[in-house]
């Protein structure tokens, strides 16, 4: 069971168990971050849909695994027009690593989001990134973790899936919020999630649609529903990543 009283999918229980075992807590990170909202504005000005393209070697819902050099994948995504990148640093279930993120951030100019299951302040002190994902469902003291991320220079992206989580994110002063179309209890994806929650998001929030966005029609649908930007993983990782990003950013 999680805080919502729901039974989590076995894969997610395993992800959380591994996350609880990770201590983090190296030297305190202090980052001079590349601005995520400015990267989105630059993409818009250039006629591209603002897309955070995700370097996601595998996942519990992906068949197989991509073993390409993550730096090659990242460069190819930027060549295709990605406004920013998301890099998995979770190794056990997603095939990522902090070292991959470090190499990628050194190789590209766009902002890089650290995608992981961060539960504690100490777990922020692992690697420099421009933004960090905080999943409202799994974080007990969200205001404290948002503040701790900002103290280090990170831009916290707070991920929500329900109205209650959205209210917690807004109360925690989040100004970058992602609505995850993937239900982490059942691992089912439904784009209606974004459409039903987006009208309740305050206007001054930079709003992302996350997960399950696979086609140009999906991009247009999320943009029409109020998405300032899209976070896309699987549909980009499946095949030619440059062509995939180009197709989805020119939707
Ligand atoms: O993607 C998964 O299989 C997954 C399983 C369990 C917990 C989280 C999971 N995904 C995390 C993500 O947030 C996505 O990687 C991201 O939103 C991109 O989604 P998609 O475009 O559907 O790959």
From TrEMBL:
Superkingdom per UniProt: Archaea
GO molecular function: indole-3-glycerol-phosphate synthase activity
Pathway: Amino-acid biosynthesis; L-tryptophan biosynthesis; L-tryptophan from chorismate: step 4/5
UniProt keywords, alphabetically: Amino-acid biosynthesis, Aromatic amino acid biosynthesis, Decarboxylase, Lyase, Tryptophan biosynthesis
BP GO annotations: L-tryptophan biosynthetic process
Catalytic activity: 1-(2-carboxyphenylamino)-1-deoxy-D-ribulose 5-phosphate + H(+) = (1S,2R)-1-C-(indol-3-yl)glycerol 3-phosphate + CO2 + H2O
InterPro entries: Aldolase_TIM, Indglycph_syn_Halo_TrpC, Indole-3-glycerol_P_synth, Indole-3-glycerol_P_synth_dom, RibuloseP-bd_barrel
Gene3D superfamilies: Aldolase class I
CDD domains, A to Z: IGPS
Enzyme Commission identifier(s): 4.1.1.48
Class of the enzyme per the UniProt entry, highest EC level: lyase
Domain Indole-3-glycerol phosphate synthase as annotated: residue spans: 28-248
Pfam families: IGPS (PF00218)
Family to which the UniProt record says this protein belongs: Belongs to the TrpC family.
Record-linked HAMAP family: IGPS_A
Name of this protein: Indole-3-glycerol phosphate synthase
Organism per entry: Haloplanus ruber
Phylogenetic placement of the source organism: Archaea, Methanobacteriati, Methanobacteriota, Stenosarchaea group, Halobacteria
Gene (name only): trpC
